[in-house]
Amino acid sequence: MILLTPKAKLLDCRAGSLIVPAHDGQRGILRNHCPMLATLSLGLLQVREIAGRPDAFYILEGGFVRVTENHVTILAYDAVTFEGLDKESIEQMVSEAQSVVVGKEYIRVQRREVDIERSRLIVRMANLAGLATEQAGGSA
Amino acid sequence: MAHTRQILGRRRAAQNISKVTGTMETISAVRYRQYYQQWAEGLAFYDALAQLAYLMVTAEEPIVHPLLEAPKSTTHALIVIGSDRGLCGAYNNDLFRQLDTHIKMSNRFGRSLRIYAKGRKVLSYLDHLKIEPSGVYEEFAEAPSASQAAAIGDFFIEQYRSGQIGRLGIVYNRFFSPASQKVQTLTVLPVIDLIDDLTTRSQIIWPWEQNFEDFFVTPSGAEIFETLAQMIVRTSILGCFLEAVTSEHLSRVVNMRNATDNADEMIGDLTKAYNRARQGQITTELLDIVSGMNAMQ
């Protein structure tokens, strides 16, 4: 599968399974999936069973997925991910997202400075990636 | 022969110039490398987008969509992407020449022109032409973020749909490769022109990869085209800004390197002239002393 944005090629690898945030809900893609073209909405892209590295997760906001002969191409405007970030910035991102989700940043949410839906996804992504679980326990 | 102090002063000036241009070259070289990497990595995205667009417009059942219809208005909108700072050679001048063509031709054919400017140099040129820009992009320094580009794209799509503009072009320095950048106008709307450009520009598409198999489409074709057209317009605008700024930095690197080399050469020449003048001065003084001594004897 290949994940592309206008500014970077984020991922180019072989993967066992994918879960993509299609416009009408999540879609799982396994080997020999039928040819498909679908639009994406805001959601979490999960890439699992990648050879030689841990699973990858990306938050996408709109775009396309195209499946042809076991090649999956995903086009997205931009992706939020933990890949390539150092530990501190990931922790900061997750803890900020958690405080939004539990309602501490209510005023900023009202002013639309931060997006609650996006923060929820960041927390979910952290849980899936097995990161910062002790922080999640602390603030819940 | 010039006085030694004058030569020294001139040499100091040349040294300062060399220092300034050298620094500008270094800064631009770093920025250029960053943007170049983004550009290079983004190529695959535009290729994939071109493939998708090609698939959609060659579908068995033609898609009917407002963005595919002929333009309703005779007003042309133009985004002109120039630089904020000078010292980048012919970068802005080539741009202005293209802009002149647009102004001249739209006058001749009775089209009205709306100009959206980016970069202080463009603004001052428009001021010189006594043209009021319809919009100025000041919210980002060099290249917009994905969401800013999306906002620009949506604005023009809306204008096109409501019939306020018939065409949207972007005048910018296109970055073909590190060896070639050229000013050109990219037609963004009507979107069919842009798809044409996208598909012809992508060079690394394997032609036989376009297998015309039936595939499952969700949601319907028209809805997908809507999203696709939006994505093409938004990302092309982003790509143009990115290419323009990449070209700008490259052009500045090249020009500043030349300027530094010239200044260094001048410093060498002035040093030689200074040494010669100094030697001449010493010789004259010695001669004075010697002839004075001779007169005394």
Question: Can you tag this structure with a few keywords?
Answer:
heterodimer; A: 140 residues; alpha+beta; ATP Synthase, domain 1; 2 domains; 5-stranded antiparallel beta sheet; 29% helix; globular; disordered C terminus; B: 297 residues; alpha/beta; Helix Hairpins; Pyruvate Kinase, Chain: A, domain 1; 5-stranded mixed beta sheet; 13% strand; elongated
Task: Describe the protein.
The complex is a heterodimer of chains A (140) and B (297). With 140 residues, chain A is of the alpha+beta class. Chain A has 2 domains: 2-81, Sandwich (ATP Synthase, domain 1), CATH 2.60.15; 87-135, no CATH class. Chain A has helices at 87-101, 106-110, 116-128, 133-139; strands at 2-5, 8-12, 15-22, 25-29, 36-40, 43-50, 56-60, 63-68, 71-76, 79-81. In chain A, strand 8 and strand 9 form a beta hairpin. The longest helix of chain A is centred in the C-terminal third of the chain and has 15 residues, at 87-101. Chain A is globular, with a radius of gyration of 16 Å. By secondary structure, chain B is an alpha/beta fold. Chain B folds into 2 domains: 4-26 and 253-296, ATP synthase, gamma subunit, helix hairpin domain (Helix Hairpins, Orthogonal Bundle); 28-251, 3-Layer(aba) Sandwich (Pyruvate Kinase, Chain: A, domain 1), CATH 3.40.1380. Chain B is built from 6 helices and 6 strands, in the order H-E-H-E-H-E-H-E-E-H-E-H. Chain B has helices at residues 4-57, 91-108, 120-129, 146-161, 191-201, 221-296; strands spanning 75-81, 112-118, 135-136, 167-177, 180-189, 216-218. Chain B has a 5-stranded mixed β-sheet. In chain B, strand 1 (75-81), helix 2 and strand 2 form a beta-alpha-beta unit. In chain B, 34% of the residues are buried. The chains are: A alpha+beta (140), B alpha/beta (297). Chains A and B meet through strand 1, strand 5 and strand 8 of A and helix 1, helix 4, strand 6 and helix 6 of B.
